[in-house]
Amino acid sequence: xxxxxxxxxxxxxxxxxxxxxxxxxxxxxxxxxxxxxxxxxxxxxxxxxxxxxxxxxxxxxxxxxxxxxxxxxxxxxxxxxxxxxxxxxxxxxxxxxxxxxxxxxxxxxxx
Amino acid sequence: xxxxxxxxxxxxxxxxxxxxxxxxxxxxxxxxxxxxxxxxxxxxxxxxxxxxxxxxxxxxxxxxxxxxxxxxxxxxxxxxxxxxxxxxxxxxxxxxxxxxxxxxxxxxxxxxxxx
Lengths: 111, 115
Known about the structure:
The complex is a heterodimer. Chain A is an all-beta fold. Helix content of chain A is about 0%, strand content about 55%. Chain A has strands at about 5, 10-15, 20-25, 30-40, 40-50, 55, 65-70, 75-80, 90-95, 100, 105-110. In chain A, the strands form 2 sheets. In chain A, strands 2, 4, 5, 6, 9, 10 and 11 form a 7-stranded mixed β-sheet that branches. In chain A, a hairpin with a 2-residue loop joins strand 5 and strand 6. In chain B, the strands form 3 sheets. In chain B, strands 2, 5, 6, 10, 11 and 12 form a 6-stranded mixed β-sheet that branches. Chain B starts with a strand and ends with a strand. Classes of the chains: A mainly beta, B mainly beta. The interface of A and B includes residues 55 and 105 of A.
């Protein structure tokens, strides 16, 4: 089992650029979660999906953030335009029960 | 709403010392409780869990008992190793009768174990 796969692992971009983070959940899992982790705010749930449908996006910080899940094996989190305060580690997690399995994260730096 | 409060770190111990990280929770229903661990540069991974009152979760020498009367789920280990250095997160899942696997996390506790 390959686990949750995220790409890229590291991303450095300039303010104003579009950033797309990608996630491949574990096969058979029907829940997918996007989190953001910073020193100041800790671990924050941004949005989660069930069977490819967004269930709760109340954690998405603002309209610059959007997430999609076009099929059961792929999800994206997009930031457009990016700002320096978006710098963080973004995690994707998937589950079919209460236990969530996390990916290795994408470390984003916006200059 | 649901919430998890865990002791603030950082916690610094010597190898073979006893570890306790306190965790208390507030939930409307009957939650399942979890401890996740995050090693440097990695994602979170499940350490142990308990799904009902008085259950004890255990893994890799770590233990935690679900105490409904005190709404607590304290993490303990009798003898820590340098390799246990990581951030530990307490979390709960309160389905509220529906199918909802959202987790509520505590802020995390950084543990450093010195040789």
